[in-house]
Prior knowledge:
22% strand, 246 residues, five-stranded mixed β-sheet, alpha/beta, 5 helices, 13 strands
Amino acid sequence: MALYALGDLHLSFQADKPMDSFGKVWKNHEKKIEKYANRMVKPEDTLVLTGDHSWGRKLQECREDLAFIERLPGRKILLRGNHDMFWDAKKTEKLNEEYKDRLFFLQNNFAVYQDYALVGTKGFTFEGPFYLNRRGQILGWDEEREAQAKKLVKREMERLRESFRLARKEGYQKFIMFLHYPPTNILEKTSPFTEIAEEYKVSAVVYSHCHGESRFGDSIRGKFHGIEYMLVSGDYLNFRPVQVLP
């Protein structure tokens, strides 16, 4: 038994949104997802997919993408991404009822892996715009958008705390924390998300969203204050799921 993670599948079996234009790594990426998942993930394993599952804007436009995910091996747990327009956070319970025993949608709830609670939310990170000089140094940024980002971070923190609260209520003391957005932006060394990770002494923070080599280093990777931070964006991993826990 093992716990794996992978993010940003960006499937489009019904929506006309090919990913080839985003680089060679995206060519036939659906086949890579299928190949590596079947090679690495066993039926008894758990695979957490950290958002941006489908380009479909409504659930009916995502059915084939979700069916593709269903066919992947293991138990599948899905987190909301910024492009997952089909998933209304207020209707997560309805999705879990519809896909019961096939897919689990992680939002304002938690999942279990061995003696760990798997908690998570989409998260949010202020991504600019940043104003740069000729050397690429940051001179300033859009403060109005930053203020709006702080409101979204507050909302996502409330959702994350609810996930932790419910897990603690059931007696869980060990946690793996999942986000779609990175836990910090390029200006931050810490954030509310790193602070809550330390508060609950999580073993790992797993996130995605960062695409392209120039973005892979936007946030924390590796050990930070005793916590393992793992970037699992599909193109970063060439669509190979990464093992989080044995």
